Amino acid sequence: MRITVLSGGVGGARFTRGLLATLAQRGESPDVQVIANTGDDITMHGLRICPDIDTILYTLGGGADEDRGWGLTDEGYRVQEGLAAYGAEPGWFTLGDRDFATHIARTQWLTEGASLTEVTGRLAARWGLPEKGVTLRPMSDVPVETHAVIDGPQGEEALHFQEWWVRGGAQPTPSRFIVAGLDRASAAPGVLDAIRTADLVLLPPSNPVVSIGIILGVPGVRDALRGTSAPVVGVSPIIAGRPVRGHADTCLDAIGVPSTAAGVAGLYRDFLDGWLVDPADAAPAPTRQGPTVRAHHRDLLMDGADDEADLATAALDLAHDVRR
């Protein structure tokens, strides 16, 4: 089975890890194509940083810091401390020494003319993803950066998503999001084919606005989802009006969508076939395809490896039920 996953950072990475564990338990050889959001990419200290790609690399490669939810385990911070001693800005975005190595290599290869797809492939090889049956692709090779528009002292102000999210704790609620570069972006090589030729497309509980929503904004992606013969199954990132993690509720509020499982499903209504929701939430109304919608028998929280695998199993089972 060829499975394509549209992924943000932590939620998508952990769900995909559970998917790989489930396939291994079933004795299946995985062929998983992961399309990563690059809308929160940023350049700092002259280095190109791709937070969602790196979270997927580290999580699937076994190096992620599970407690923090970002970066690498067993990190040192001597470079960060040295930059702070010099007064080099920004100081609000923490990078570990081993994490710096990833960004230095990426920036060097990009400067030498490699595409982001090629660079991501090299990084994925270092973390052993091909051996796990995973192909990791950026949504686009064109740089795309999301900004939150907020009310500042001088009127409207656009902050890079990372500054708004990390430095400001996703506050205040923005009036809207601007995605710089999306108007000239195109899908990275292999992205559209990964959707069109998939046996199953999965949407993990990633942020529906600034993660999956940005991927859907890449020209051709939404059309490919509408046209694929594969069932498209998603997992709600909202439980009883609250996000599973992060600030999805704030992002939904910014675009005028209710922070509910049904509200998020509405963002995907033109291509969604199946939608996993928590028992605390009502099932959304049928979509264009009239999917089977099942309230999952347990909380959708992923608190460990068993939960990740159970959630992936539920998504696979639902896909079987709604297969076109």
Quick take:
With about 325 residues, the chain is an alpha/beta fold. The protein is built from twelve helices and 14 strands.
What does this structure look like?
It is globular, with a radius of gyration of 19 Å. The chain is an alpha/beta fold. It has helices spanning 10-25, 51-60, 78-86, 97-111, 116-126, 161-167, 191-196, 212-217, 221-227, 248-254, 261-267, 305-322, and strands at 2-7, 31-36, 42-44, 47-49, 134-138, 145-152, 155-160, 176-180, 200-203, 232-235, 238-239, 242-243, 274-277, 292-295. The chain has a seven-stranded parallel β-sheet with strand order 5-2-1-9-10-13-14. Helices cover 37% and strands 19% of the residues. Helix 1 (10-25) packs across helix 12.
Order of helices and strands: EHEEEHHHHEEEHEHEHHEEEHHEEH
If strands are numbered along the chain, what order do they take across the biggest sheet? 5-2-1-9-10-13-14
> Cα-atom Rg, whole angstroms?
19 Å
Q: What about the largest sheet? A: 7 strands, parallel
> Which consecutive residue ranges, at least 5 long each, have pLDDT under 50?
none
What amount of the residues lies in strands?
Answer: 15-25%
Morphology call = globular
Q: What is the CA–CA distance across the termini?
A: 15 Å
Helix content: 25-40%
- Number of beta strands: 14
What's the topology here?
Elements: E1 2-7, H1 10-25, E2 31-36, E3 42-44, E4 47-49, H2 51-60, H3 78-86, H4 97-111, H5 116-126, E5 134-138, E6 145-152, E7 155-160, H6 161-167, E8 176-180, H7 191-196, E9 200-203, H8 212-217, H9 221-227, E10 232-235, E11 238-239, E12 242-243, H10 248-254, H11 261-267, E13 274-277, E14 292-295, H12 305-322
Parallel strand pairs: 1-2, 1-9, 2-5, 9-10, 10-13, 13-14
Antiparallel strand pairs: 3-4, 6-7, 6-8, 11-12
Helix pairs in contact: 1-2, 1-12, 4-5
